[in-house]
Each structure stands twice: as C-alpha cells, then as structure tokens.
Amino acid sequence: MTTAASTFASRRLPAAAFVVAAVLGAVFAAALSLWAYYGTEVFFEMVRAGWMSCF
Q: How many degrees, rounded to 5, is the angle at CA 14 between CA 11 and CA 18?
C-alpha cells in the first residue's frame, strides 16, 4: 500500500537532483562564457585571485 508521504518522498529526490544539475550546468556555462570573453590567462588569474582571497 502506497502512502502519500512515500509518494512525495520518492518524487522529491529526482526534483532535487534536477535542481542540482541545473545549478551546476549554469555555473559551468558561466565559467565557459567568462573563459571565452576574457581568455585563458585572465580567467585563471581571476579564479586564482578569488581563491586566494578566500584562503
């Protein structure tokens, strides 16, 4: 017998996976567009400067 709670829980996992995949895809697309716009050297310098400012 299927309950409403188990049906809701089984639908939530694929929805969460879709959201995570969409966010990661957007981040990847943004990184590629920045790389194409600024070039590899400037892009890596920006990433390195941001990484160093965090740590």
A: 135
